[in-house]
Amino acid sequence: MTTDAEGGGSRRDFLNIVGWTGLGIGAVAFAWPLVHQMNPAADVLALATTRVDISAIAEGMNVTVMWQGRPVWIRHLTEEDIQTANAVDLNDLRDPEPLEARVIQSPWLVQIGICTHLGCVPLGNRSGEPRGDFDGWFCPCHGSHYDIAGRIRRGPAPRNLDVPPHEFVSDTELLIG
Ligand code: FES
After folding, report:
1. Model pTM score
2. Which domain holds residue 166?
């Protein structure tokens, strides 16, 4: 048989448990929006990667896509491009990189279309634009010339055009980011 004291104690324990449980739920409920807002939003995640159908990019063609607010250039290299790039003596380069170090799957050259000097967007990715002294890309801001592998050959830019993280999901689909 339960005494009043025992019964009162049991009720207090029950109220305490309910009270702490309520506080716990309240704390989680309070913290959840804070934790949740620290997760990247779905639209941010979507912008973190860019998928490109490369099936229609013919040999010798350049295409520009946007990735994380930056232009990314995709060039379908020709056999002549590859031979020209491979014929360059790496000792002549400011930022020595063989073509194969810049291309994860030939014949696709994927690079960020931003000059590594002060961040202008060079010319040469659209047909009819000047391509510089090395038949690649040319930044008119201060005169940086890049070759057909995106390597700096002349002018103030300190390094080659950056290659973004990317992979080929299939023969026709490129994933950037
Ligand atoms: S920003 Fe391209 S040469 Fe200066």
Report:
1. 0.76
2. 46-176
